[in-house]
Structures are given as C-alpha cells and as structure tokens.
C-alpha cells in the first residue's frame, strides 16, 4: 500500500508485533522505524509518556498545546488506561504493555505497537506498526496520514531521548 513503510527494513516488516494479536486480517498495515542514539531504557521513558501527549504535530493533533519536552515521573503503563491525551482529552486505551519492550494501544479503530529493539552499541531501534480493519479507501488515506504524523512523532521521540533530559521538576 502507498505510504506503508518508512525507515524500516524488510526484516522489520516480517517480524511479529503485539498489535498483530488484536486485529485479525487487517487491510491497513503500516510500519515506521527510527534508530535512536540512546539505550532502550531512555527511549522507553519517552514512549511511555505518549500517554500525556501525541508528540507529533501539536498544532494538528493537540490543539496547539505543546507536548511535554521534559520527562515526567509516571508509573508504568497498564492495559485499560488511556492511550494518549490530545487536545486536553484522554483518547484510546492501552491494550498491552511490557515496560522497556513495547506499548500497544488502540485509538480511532487503529491498533498501534511501539516496539523497542536494542541495536548495535548503545542504540535502539524504535519501531511502530499500525494495523486496522476498514474499507480500502479509508485504509489508503489512513496510511498516508499516519505516515506524516507517525514520522514526526518518532523523530520527536528520537530527539527527546537523545537529548538526555531528565524528569520535570
């Protein structure tokens, strides 16, 4: 599908992701990935903070509110909690989480898995897979829209994790 891959290898698209367990026979499948020059523990703290804000284009999906640029001391994510907060409202829900390894949630009918894979040295591959069952036209539009938003989100998470910023005070 047009726009279904950004920053991922063929091997990364063939691996199994937690979201695959929640959507049988999806007709929207999209993979995104970025290498982060930080260990998985540093990347995880930012991924887990998606519960506070979308970290994409804040003027679009957060009504102009800026996503936090410092870490907040949060408990680990738990299935059933809100997946994210956008425009001041909680959205979606967490379906599963394995701290330090993956966060899987549902929002607007799509299921997303953020997966952290330790890479060579002290780097991390931050992978995202999105799956959904919908009609083909919505699937194409959703895939292209996700490409724009998810790319920005992953690049923001990369920048923040690499900056080494500690918890907010």
UniProtKB/TrEMBL annotation:
<dbReference type="InterPro" id="IPR023393">
    <property type="entry name" value="START-like_dom_sf"/>
</dbReference>
<protein>
    <submittedName>
        <fullName>SRPBCC family protein</fullName>
    </submittedName>
</protein>
